[in-house]
Amino acid sequence: MSVVTTQMHGNIAVVTIDNPPVNAASQAVRQGLMEALHATEASQPAAVVLTCAGRTFVAGADIREFDKPFLEPGLPELLNAIEGATRPWVAAIHGTALGGGCELALACSHRIGAATAKIGLPEVNLGLIPGAGGTVRMPRLIAPIEAARLAVTGKPISASEAHKLGLFDAVAEGELLDAAIQLAKDAAAKPLPAPLLTRDAPEVDRATWDAAMAKLTAKARGQTSPHEAAAAVRDALDHDGVTALGLERERFMRLKASPQSAALRYIFFAERMVGKTPHTKGVAPRPLAEIGVVGGGTMGAGIAAAALLAGLPVTMVERDTDAANAGAARVEGILGGSLKRGLISETKHAALLAKFTTATDYAALAKADLVIEAVFEDMDVKKQVFAALDAACKPEAVLASNTSYLDVNEIAASVREPARVVGLHFFSPAHIMKLLEIVVPETVADDVLATALALAKTLRKLPVLAGVCDGFIANRIMTSYRREADYLLEDGALPYEIDAAMRAYGMPMGIFEMQDLAGLDIGWAARKRRAATRPAHQRYVEIADRICEQGHFGRKTGQGWYLYGEDGKPTRNPEVEALVLEEADRKGIRRQSFEASDIMARILACMQSEGQAILDEGIAASPQDIDVTMVNAFGFPRWKGGPMFQRTTG
Ligand code: T1G
Ligand code: NAD
């Protein structure tokens, strides 16, 4: 069965692509479209409507083909042919017309979107730029700086925005196909618009352009594709369409062969393979109608907000009324922030709050299908909470701990039915961070694991399955390279040098800035907990403990590794730097100076060796699990794929 079929609706030919799951422009699709073009050029219908079956218009070139030999017809060749059609071609867009899908729409003479449709050029997220005319045709249809915004940010826009910019000729009110057929009939009665490639691009003076591009590429950090996308659109303004098309293709092919694109394509697919396990194949999750959260602190409030924003009713239990009110205020603050940023409407905001209740009595959790504990990181406190949950919750309720490091097997063993206990390690802020480590105790039931995965899907989180160990995947690796950073301190580096080296590599912040942000007390508590079991031979750096003993916990106390003034910006802390020198001296260490590359090499090697140990122990199932975790927990640069991917690049 061809993935492209044509049906006549009166004198309008409707060409339909059907290539699940996202109608990617695979070789079969390109071939089918070329044949449909030739057929309609021969049959001369009044006009052609191009539509897609399933959930979305073409969501891009088929990324899976990129590492395979090139297959004719190429997308640029196909799009040039469609643009040369002698009858109008109307792209009827629903779902997400992305990348090659957007370019296919641009090659058509007209475009109409469903009200919920989105359209964009996300190629930069794969380390690429549009490779089939997107940077050339777009600035000939809409304002060049708006065209650059699409290509440089990779962010799709809504149908109404696309219509406002002139990218869509119309937004369908009712049935998309009917509206598209009507638009095709109207177009058939008029002369064909000039093909975009033949039009002159509007002038944009260099100063205006450069200022706009500087803003658009400001967040690129070390990723090159946003800058390349900006340069490609500029080429389109400085050259005729055909020349610009050639320049775009050269730039695209160079990027496709680049290490950054290989890494970004790797992490794209890695993020879609995590969270899959044979244990839950064909296993139905338990109901997830009502959520309970115990603890309304930083994490409890974030988790409650995440569940509310996903449409789930939440009951939050705290120690006492004051704590419950404080927790409620945190949740209301988060939802208020979503309202202020326009992420939710007033109506939605009110509806979400109506689904939120707080209590101090665990009886309030009697109907909850899943309860997440987010109380102090203390095993005794957690066991008390789980004992209360064991008594108060219905037998089939799933009980989850948000612990950062503690032994979830031990927590599970503390309740009557250990099979219903699982770890759900959210990252702060829990309503924003996509990563969710699902910690799998030995006793967990398959349908409880399936329920945890179903919750991740509902919350639109990225689930990574982790075995039980100290810190699971993310915090265990972070503990390891934090330790290495401490060694580097004694060996000769200073906190700001190490942080600068990590930022230069592409991390959003250095390990010392990060500790100050999270609070030095968390790591301190973890080190004290581990003291008894720390291997005697393991080198131990006491600098962080010295800082904590003085009550300096980072941002929240105004000083830690750095000093924090009114503006909240970190500045070097002379006391800490003096302490570093004293400690090295006390240990008789001859300090040496380090290049940023040396610092990062040691930190990366540490991430990789801890990652390998995690694989060897079966805590993570694949290198992809580790890379997805490091990219999404600590902002390891996506354009480097992850610490484990970096081992393969030589
Ligand atoms: N090619 C191949 N497979 C794709 C794909 C693509 N473009 N997009 C998605 N998939 C697979 C994905 O791996 C998963 O597979 C399934 O579809 C569902 O995806 C020439 C060169 C469209 C917003 O970058 O952003 O065009 O795991 O889980 O959350 O200039 O997929 O089921 O086996 O993400 O509903 C440009 C990438 C390509 C869009 C849907 N296009 N895709 O999200 O589902 S480069 C993109 C997405 C290009 C041209 C250039 C999302 C989505 P499996 P999913 P979703
Ligand atoms: P927090 O101190 O901000 O909040 C803990 C809350 O638990 C407090 O509001 C306290 O009143 C409440 N609480 C304590 N005992 C209770 C009880 N018996 N019943 C009900 N409520 C009780 O702590 P947090 O930062 O939200 O961390 C909570 C958990 O999440 C810890 O296990 C922590 O390790 C983990 N975690 C923290 C982060 C983070 O970055 N802060 C990230 C991931 C996981």
Report on this structure.
By secondary structure, this protein is of the alpha/beta class. The protein folds into three domains: 4-257, 2-enoyl-CoA Hydratase, Chain A, domain 1 (Alpha-Beta Complex), CATH 3.90.226; 278-466, Rossmann fold (3-Layer(aba) Sandwich), CATH 3.40.50.720; 474-618, N-(1-d-carboxylethyl)-l-norvaline Dehydrogenase, domain 2, CATH 1.10.1040. Helix content is 47%, strand content 12%. Strand 2, helix 1 and strand 3 (47-52) form a beta-alpha-beta unit. The longest helix is centred in the last third of the chain and has 21 residues, at 596-616. The site of nicotinamide-adenine-dinucleotide has 26 residues, from helix 12, helix 13 and helix 15.
Bound molecules: (2S,3S)-3-hydroxy-2-methylbutanoyl-COA, nicotinamide-adenine-dinucleotide
Second rung of CATH, namely the architecture of the largest domain: Alpha-Beta Complex
Separate helix tally:
26
CATH class of the largest domain: Alpha Beta
Low-confidence stretches: none
CATH level-four homologous superfamily name of the largest domain = 2-enoyl-CoA Hydratase, Chain A, domain 1
Mean pLDDT: 96
Strand order of the largest sheet: 12-11-10-13-14-15-16-17
Strand proportion, as a percent range, falls in: 5-15%
Distance between the termini: 44 Å
CATH topology of the largest domain: 2-enoyl-CoA Hydratase, Chain A, domain 1
Number of self-contained structural domains: 3
